[in-house]
Amino acid sequence: MRDLNYIELIEDIANWIKQYVQTANLNGVVVGLSGGIDSAVTTSLCIKGFGKENIIGVGLPCESISQDLDDARLVAKSLGIDFEIVDLTLTYKEMIKNFPSEITLKDMALANIKPRLRMITLYCIAQSLGYLVGGTGNRTELAIGYFTKYGDIGDLCAFLH
After folding, report:
1. Structural domain of residue 20, as residue ranges?
2. Has residue 76 been placed in a domain?
3. What is the pTM of this model?
4. CATH code, 50
5. Terminus-to-terminus CA distance in the chain, angstroms?
6. pLDDT tens profile 92-123
7. How far apart are CA 109 and CA 89, in angstroms?
């Protein structure tokens, strides 16, 4: 079995992020901070590669539990990055309210609206600032198909497009 040098791996990933952003002629990275490990690791790697002044964390609650946003806030504070909050709850409620009454919305369809709204928001912020959306998905999610098409997979693909 190959011995991994994690310090070198971290450096390689951070440098790749930096080069990717610079090659795209962009100024930084926007990361959707959920308060979980994937977004915290992605944000840390982006900071290492590009500097914390060029990273913005965004909390995107949408009928979410408050602990998630508290955790995201703590991650941003601990890493020393700017943190913005865009509460999508009212947007979500307004959207579902406007569907025709003859269409019965299924639970899965309703659940998938939330990650799609989050991704729309991240891309809007990123494009407005000349930033890239930082991918927070992981290989396992991609391998088993545990993601929302055009939603949370959108940021995973951000570094791959």
Report:
1. 6-158
2. yes
3. 0.88
4. 3.40.50.620
5. 32
6. 999 999 999 999 999 999 999 999 999 999 99
7. 16
